[in-house]
Amino acid sequence: MEFEPVIGLEVHAQLLTQSKIFCSCSTRFGARPNFNTCPVCLGLPGALPVLNEAAVTMAIKAGLALGCRINSQSVFARKNYFYPDLPKGYQISQYDRPLAERGAVTLLTGERQGTGNIVNYRQKKFGITRVHLEEDAGKSIHATGGDTYVNLNRSGVPLIEIVSEPDLRSSQEAYDFMTYLRRTLLYLEICDGNMEEGSLRCDANVSIRPIGSSVFGTKTEIKNLNSFRFLQKALDYEIERQVDVIRRGGIVVQETRLWDEQAQKTFAMRSKEEAHDYRYFPEPDLLPLTISSEHLETIRREIPELPEQKRERLVSTYKLTDEEAFSVAQNKAFADYFEDAAKASGNPRAVFNWMMGDWMRILKRDERDISESPVSPERLAGLLALLDQGTVSSKMAKDVFERMYQTGLEAEKIVLQEGMQQISNSAQLEVLIDGILQSNPREVEAYKSGKQGLLAFFVGQVMKETRGQANPKLVNQLLKAKLQP
User: Fold this and answer.
1) Containing domain of residue 70, as a range?
2) What pTM does this model have?
3) Strand spans (E) along 185-284
4) Which residue among 260, 368, 430, 453 is least crowded, i.e. fewest CB within 10 A of its CB?
């Protein structure tokens, strides 16, 4: 019997507010332990929460971008459980009346061959169950020797939880869905997407069932996956583990599991809680959250072009392939730079090749984002114009670009200042070539005898004499003409 996995994700995204969701404490990452705290986020008696309006606006943007219905009235609830890093003994969240629900996204997904590129791209629709607001808990740090330290700086940081429908059927689809969510949140500028700092993290619910069956199997939840790689690896392991359990005649137990990166396996953490275990009830200190239709429309108008919309437009407008457009649209700043340079140069193909080649190499080398670039899109277009005109060769253009990157100067100025113009004067090159051929009679004779590979030797000599400034195409033409038997 063959099985298929059924996967749903619960994604927690920290909102980019300056203060926490129910108090004025800073959300800045990296402050000294327990510094960004107050009576509200410590849960002290008599401290009352006050809702952060900016967090609500950001959550609505996320709901709209994910195709959700925004409820005109939602309710906060207390989710009761006891951890050392939860000082109140409950978490303020939303339960039966969330801010947004019943959405869907359509995205490009596919299969990955080994460590290579994704192939067999296809559009697939994934349902969004809900998007709701909640506060984060603190953080427990387990030290060697059995001691545990608690840092409550994160307690009260505003989150949205994005819950998908169980529509994912492979670890690759889960990866593509998660990266889509991250891109969308970055485009909306409501989350920094930093998984290492905990700004974006994921719990995955996974079960298996016989192919063709519509009945769900028993699910397990894998908690606190903080990288795309861990998400894929944990799902692949858990799917295989559950298949093995069933084939051996066992029963999959509903439980919460953790991913052990060192052991490359999941392990049981605790039995899975149900909603009734949390004893949800309406938060008595907060009124229902009411969103007017006018306010909702104002926020709707602020939604930018989103990643999949941009990808489709890049394909139709600039004649990129699906994969090329996908690469460009992953980063909003990168996509904006590409479009500005493509419009300025009139040559989107050259811009794409340059950005995905030398430009990407330099950014990776210096660990910089393209938004920090000292080379503007218009100046990149200026360099490509010099290349197209034959003023500089491809090799020279790389050197010019490096100087542009270092100095911020435009290409034409660098070429003039440093005498980097390509030599395309036939008469000037012929004099130089004649001298090289006279100095290498044996190589000339060998070439004429059939050793055609020596052409590269002569080209190299010309380039050496001109410090790389000779037009290589013209040099090849002149040499072949002069070396004819």
Assistant:
1) 3-298
2) 0.85
3) 200-210, 220-225, 255-260, 265-271, 281-282
4) 453
